Amino acid sequence: MKKESNASRLSGALIYIRNLRDCPPSYLDDPERKEFYEIVWLQNEAPLHALKSNDQALQRNWIYLIPPYRVHQLNKAGKNGALISFKREILEDADKEFLLDIFKIFNVQGEFSCLAADNDAAANLQQIFHLLMEEYQRPGNLIIVKAMLKVFLLKLIQIKEHTFTSHDIHEKRVYEFLMLLESNYLQERQAEFYAANLGISPKRLNQILKEKLDKTAMQLIHDRLILESKRLIIHSENTIKEIAYDLGFSDRPYFSRFFKKQTGQSPEAFQQHVRSHVGTKQNTLV
């Protein structure tokens, strides 16, 4: 597909696939990586995040689904498994129902989601992944790669939900709202704007979102702002004051109050916590 070079491995790419043990540091440091969906598939490994049950001690197949522009902290150093990164554009010809399912399994309003695959599901995934990797390594096979990626994602949907979700007009509106939000959250922070673009009332929009995502439009707008705030605090060289301005806040104190109300800690405390965390872990997915 795309030869390795000292330049950005992701520049101009729609998909990037590697064995986790062979994933170069240059990928983790690539500034374009933030735009990609990531599938981190651990094979016969313990999970990367704390669980409430004793399953944490089990070595099995754990599949982490990480949306773009997230600030996850998953230390995958020395792990067995695979990495699949792709841009949403590679699925641009897919129908809205399928894309909404992808939004759901990747938990686009959160940091990431995690699936635990049993042996049968993992074996099926491995067969699909093998075919996907074969086509990925052949030049000029993007059409087949896209088809195999979609099959792989459909299998992940099956693993999470066991049966495909039923789709109705409300789920399509949720998808359309999320797409509008991605494009407009920095400028438009009122439910009225999104409702008007969807041709429904703000009250009806909130009813639909509460039913499907258990959050109101304002809560989802705030969630997206916080995620972007965290990303900028971690990845940019800007000061908190500059970040507040970039996000459209009138001043730093207003931004700090908003951030603390939503997260329970100040931007400075969050920044210090992340720096401390990253400093104690190597090869961390950030």
Q: How does this structure look, described?
A:
The protein is globular. The strands form 2 sheets. A 5-stranded antiparallel beta sheet has the order 1-5-2-3-6, with helices on one face. Strands 4-7 form a two-stranded antiparallel sheet. It has 11 helices and 7 strands. Helix content is 49%, strand content 13%. α2 crosses α5 (169-184), α5 packs across α7 and α8 crosses α11.
Descriptors:
286 residues; alpha+beta; Jelly Rolls; Arc Repressor Mutant, subunit A; two-stranded antiparallel ribbon; 11 helices; globular; disordered N terminus
Give a concise summary.
The protein is an alpha+beta fold. The protein is built from 11 helices and 7 strands.
CATH architectural arrangement of the largest domain:
Sandwich
Instruction: Choose one word for the global shape.
Output: globular
Can you tell me the CATH class of the largest domain? Mainly Beta
Report mean pLDDT, rounded to a whole number. Answer: 82
Main sheet: which strands, in order across? 1-5-2-3-6
Following the backbone from N to C, one meets helices and strands in this order, namely: EHEEEEHEHHHHHHHHHE
Protein structure class: alpha+beta
Taken together, the total number of domains comes to 2
Unreliable segments of 5+ consecutive residues: 1-8
The number of helical runs is: 11
Radius of gyration: 20 Å
Largest sheet: 5 strands, antiparallel
The share of residues in extended strands comes to 5-15%
Any idea of the CATH topology of the largest domain?
Jelly Rolls
Percentage of residues assigned to helices: 40-55%
Count of DSSP E strands?
7
**Span between termini:** 26 Å
